[in-house]
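Q: My collaborator sent me two sequences in one message, no labels, and asked for predicted structures for both. Can we handle them in order? The first one she listed is below.
A: Yes, handling them in the order given. First sequence, followed by its structure tokens:
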Amino acid sequence: MTRSSLSRRSLLATGGAAVVALGAGAAAQPAVAAPTEPTPPTPTEALRRLLRGNQRFVTGHSRHPHQSLDDLHELAAGQHPFAVTIGCADSRVAPELLFDQGLGDLFDNRVAGNIVDDLLLGSVEFAVEEFGSPLVVVLGHERCGAITATIDTIRSGGTAPGHIGTIVDSLRPVVEPVLDLPGDPVENGVRANVKAQVRSLLDRSPILAEKVHEGALAVVGARYDLDNGRVTLLH
């Protein structure tokens, strides 16, 4: 599958209609928005850009780049995200903030437990195919509530209420094998889950695997520290 095999007209028709509906002001916008910054040419450069942004965040030197109304108007005609993130829905883990990026930089996918199901996988594949994003980051974080709920459910022998059980059922095969390892069980579960979701992306998606093989894409796992704001890569 190539980028050209996607129908830009069919997939983005609704967005195009919305721009037209804005009236004369929207008509003045360019047909294709320019990137807020040049897209990093390689996965390595994309990762460096993210980690430099996190360093600014950690040291209190965030720039909050291209977040103005002018930037919003420039991006109205199109987006050019240089990285795709798969993060937890936790309110303390906002990728644009912790990586010090702005509008149009990141294609965010957030769900409790950063679980890669079919819908999320399709979202990631779309971003990589349509925008040519060279980097995918699976971002877990310490003291993850989804991991904690899974551990509590396993140990109690009970069930999670409502649809929370769907999250627990998805994480159980990842968390259960590391429950008895030395160290903090939640931390062990977080790390195991990030690595499992990275494997899932590559094992289940020929699109992503092919681009990784070609050197056009990197899929990496990382952990966010709630106490100091630092992101570290997991190998």
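Q: And the one she listed second?
A: Here it is, processed independently of the first:
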Amino acid sequence: MLLADGRLPAGGYAHSGGLEPAVIAGRVRNMADLEAFLTGRAQTAGLVAAAFAAAACARASRDDLAALPELEAEFDARIPSPELRKVSRDLGRQLQRAMGSIHPHRYFSALGRAPHQPLVMGVAASVLGLGPQDAALAILHDNNAGAAAAAKLMRVDPFEVHAILARATGPLDDLARRAAETADADPADLPAPSAPLADIAAEHHRRADARLFAS
């Protein structure tokens, strides 16, 4: 619950998870669009992040930190957008800093200076005594709720937004289980579903003259 808490000072509040450019482009205009956007995001970028969080947790639990660089490289390969790679590392660095203060452990410094967010989440879960499925579920909920919070860009009823989040709990549980099943797989064999439009939107957003969110 700590790891998935939006109040954790890890920088997620400054990011829309791609929702801002989707709203600006007119692809998300109402609650049905928002739910479809969050569902698609969870099944693509969310599943990838969950799988890598689970894998990092499994390896940290075995004190196998030497495997983390390969996970880093494989996660990089699954993010074509340079902007989204930067966002993941920015959020990873902030989560690393937050957890290093909240629950100091030598593993956090072993991650390097700018690790990807899912790997930090996996290591943090391990340090807190959690398992791969917990790590996967934490990052799925963190990413889903963070993107939904950016719905303030539209004229929406916040109760309806949270109803969408409530309906997502079952599907996110299923995705977390799928991610945990791959936790011990070779990094090259971890899930790699893609969302090309999200990568393109991230690059457009980076060049926007005016924006409310960092990504």
